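can u do me a favor
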């Protein structure tokens, strides 16, 4: 069963809430009624007649997004006060995003819907290593193809290609199939999965490129780390704390 969870920045509890469907072009013939919005053109053909009809063209009209048949969390943040979702008429009225999840409940793709300057999606690819760890944090990229808001499949190659094409100076000798458009973690070989090294995007900052952030995990020996405790004394209706040494931490 697919679980569809909606998170609203403004919580609206309403019955039978509908939203006008905006299309690029609209054509009406015969008797028509209702409120209609198009982004390009509206044509009233011969024979059109009405008793109650409203139509307008909005260049930045809101187009409802499709959602894939996957587990997802859809988030809508309203940018203006309104009493119903049907009040959304332009893209500037809302900021929307969606995160798709795999069968184990792990994020597998994050999408900033219409987040690019040209109103296309900004996609962040998510993947895991053979032990189920998220060892790479991929950079988001502009996706000009596909249906807005839908799951686009594995986008590792598309992310690499985008950054090689647009930020080639950061990957001078790497190809569009090897560009490290992600930060990367190197885990220790133990069930603790502690991070040993962390690398950043860009050829100069790649894993094993001598510019990683390194982490060390050590234990103390006997009489190496002092143990301090706080004691208090009470005088003149006042507690006075004091920091005193109480030996050393035990080894390990």
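np, heres the sequence
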């Amino acid at each position: 069963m697919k679980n569809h969870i909606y998170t609203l920045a403004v919580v609206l509890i309403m019955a039978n809430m509908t939203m006008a469907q905006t299309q690029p072009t609209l054509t009406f013939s015969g008797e028509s009624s209702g409120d209609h919005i198009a982004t390009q053109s509206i044509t009233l053909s011969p024979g059109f007649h009405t008793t109650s009809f409203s139509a307008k063209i909005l260049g930045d009209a809101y187009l409802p997004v499709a959602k894939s048949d996957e587990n997802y969390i859809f988030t809508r943040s309203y940018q203006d006060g309104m009493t119903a979702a049907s009040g959304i008429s332009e893209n500037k009225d809302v900021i929307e995003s969606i995160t798709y999840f795999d069968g184990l409940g792990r994020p597998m793709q994050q999408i900033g819907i219409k987040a690019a300057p040209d109103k296309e999606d900004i996609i962040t690819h998510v993947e895991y290593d053979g032990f189920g760890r998220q060892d790479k944090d991929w950079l988001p990229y502009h996706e000009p193809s596909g249906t807005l808001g839908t799951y686009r499949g594995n986008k590792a190659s598309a992310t690499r290609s985008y950054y090689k094409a647009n930020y080639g100076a950061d990957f001078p000798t790497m190809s569009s199939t090897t560009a490290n458009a992600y930060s990367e973690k190197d885990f220790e070989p133990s069930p603790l999965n502690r991070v040993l090294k962390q690398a950043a995007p860009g050829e100069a900052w790649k894993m094993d490129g001598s510019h990683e952030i390194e982490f060390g995990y050590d234990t103390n020996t006997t009489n190496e780390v002092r143990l301090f405790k706080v004691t208090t004394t009470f005088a003149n209706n006042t507690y006075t704390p004091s920091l005193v040494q109480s030996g050393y931490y035990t080894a390990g």
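The chain has three domains: 1-22+59-154, 25-57, 218-252. hope that helps!!
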